[in-house]
Design a protein that fits this description.
This protein has about 350 residues and is an alpha/beta fold. Helices cover about 45% and strands about 15% of the residues. Helix 7 links the parallel strand 3 and strand 4. Helix 1 crosses helix 3. This is LacI family transcriptional regulator.
C-alpha cells in the first residue's frame, strides 16, 4: 500500500506543496479557495499527516510512554488502563511497553520510547538504574516512577506503603493461631520485592513468630515462581500452615499448586495475596488480600508527569495499603490455639 503524501494532496488540489502545508498546519496565510481545495483533496485521499515528521518540527508530540513490569500481571494491566484514560483526558496518547520483568527488555523499550520523542515516560523500573533508566535521567526526559523506585535516583514517584498491609496480614494470621508463615517473596532486585520482604521480616519478629529462613522462598513476581514456592515450602520437614504471596501472579501460581495437591485453602492452609484483583473476591473461598489503589496510583502518576513536562517538580506520593480479610485466611490454624495477644 502506497502512503499518501502532502505532494499528492497538493497535486489533487491544484496548489503548491507549500500552500497545502500551510492549510493543513492551520496557517491563516492562505486564500479561502485554496483552503477549501486542500481540505477537500485531503478528505478524498484520506490523508493523515506523519506524526513523527511533525514532531521533528515541534517541541511536543502529545504522547507519553508507559513501561510496565509485566503486562500479564492484572495489577499492571489495570494500571495501564488507568494511565491511558487519564492521559487521553489530558490530550495525550499512550505508547505501552512490557518489560516482562527483564532488564534487557526494559532497556529496549525505553530506547524505543526515547526515539519516538514521547513527551514523558511513566515507568515501573527494574534493576539498579543503569542502562536506559540512567539515560532517561541524563537526557532530562520527564519521568515518573510508578509502583517501584530506584535507589539513588531523584525521580518523582507514586508507590505504596507495603509495611502497614503486610503487618496487618501477619498479625491476622497470628491471631488465628499460625506461627509458621511461609512467605513467597518478590525479587530483591526490585524495590517492591525488597520493601515487602523487609516488612514481612519485621512483622514476624515483632510478633514473636517463627523466623526460620526456610519459610521464605524468593520468586520473581510471576506465576510459575508462586507454584515453585508453594512446592518448596510444603516439602519442608515442618511446613507452614499459612502462606503470604508478595503479588497477585505468584498468588495465582500458589492457588494452582495447592489445588493440585488437594489442599483446601482456608481450611488445610491459609493464603493471603498482595494486590486486590477483582476476581479474587469471586473465588471459593474468597481470597484475603492486601489492597492498595491502582486507580489512584495511575491517575496520580499521570498528573505528576504532566507537572514535570510543564517544568514542575512534584513531590513523591506514597499510597496506603490495608488487609481485606476473607475466607481464605479467617479459619483457625489446624490444631493451633488462638492467641488473644494477637487479636
Amino acid at each position: 500500500m502506497v502512503a499518501i503524501t502532502i505532494k499528492d494532496v497538493a497535486a489533487l488540489a491544484g496548489v503548491s506543496v507549500a500552500t497545502a502545508s500551510r492549510v493543513l498546519s492551520g496557517s491563516p496565510a492562505t486564500s479561502p479557495e485554496a483552503r477549501a481545495s486542500v481540505v477537500t483533496a485531503a478528505a478524498q485521499l484520506d490523508y493523515r499527516p506523519n506524526a513523527q515528521a511533525r514532531a521533528l518540527r515541534r517541541t511536543h508530540t502529545e504522547s507519553i510512554g508507559l513501561l510496565v513490569s509485566d503486562v500479564r500481571n492484572p495489577f499492571f494491566a489495570d494500571l495501564a488502563h488507568t494511565v491511558e484514560q487519564a492521559a487521553l483526558a489530558a490530550g495525550y496518547v499512550t505508547l505501552l511497553g512490557n518489560a516482562n520483568e527483564r532488564k534487557e527488555q526494559q532497556d529496549r523499550y525505553l530506547e524505543t520510547l526515547i526515539s519516538r520523542r514521547v513527551d514523558g515516560i511513566v515507568v515501573a523500573p527494574l534493576g539498579d538504574g543503569s542502562g536506559s533508566i540512567r539515560s532517561l535521567i541524563k537526557r532530562r526526559i520527564p519521568t515518573v516512577f510508578v509502583d517501584r523506585t530506584v535507589d539513588g535516583l531523584d525521580v518523582p514517584s507514586v508507590t505504596t506503603d507495603s509495611e502497614t498491609g503486610i503487618r496487618q496480614a501477619v498479625a491476622h494470621l497470628a491471631a488465628v493461631g499460625h506461627t509458621r508463615i511461609g512467605y513467597i517473596s518478590g525479587p530483591q532486585a526490585t524495590s517492591t520485592g525488597r520493601d515487602r520482604f523487609a516488612a514481612f521480616t519485621r512483622a514476624v519478629a515483632d510478633l514473636g513468630l517463627s523466623q526460620d529462613p526456610e519459610l521464605v522462598y524468593f520468586g520473581d513476581f510471576q506465576a510459575a515462581s508462586g507454584s515453585l514456592g508453594v512446592h518448596a515450602l510444603l516439602e519442608l520437614r515442618r511446613p507452614p500452615t499459612a502462606l503470604l504471596a508478595a503479588d497477585s501472579p505468584m498468588a495465582v501460581g500458589a492457588i494452582a499448586i495447592l489445588h493440585k495437591r488437594g489442599l483446601r485453602i482456608g481450611r488445610d492452609i491459609a493464603l493471603i495475596a498482595f494486590d486486590d484483583i477483582e476476581w479474587f473476591a469471586l473465588l471459593d473461598p474468597a481470597l484475603s488480600v492486601i489492597s492498595h489503589s491502582v486507580e489512584d496510583m495511575g491517575r496520580i502518576a499521570v498528573k505528576m508527569l504532566l507537572e514535570v513536562i510543564g517544568g514542575g517538580s512534584p513531590e513523591s506520593v506514597v499510597l496506603p495499603s490495608e488487609l481485606l480479610i476473607r475466607e481464605s485466611s479467617s479459619a483457625p490454624a489446624p490444631g493451633a490455639p488462638i492467641s488473644p495477644e494477637f487479636v
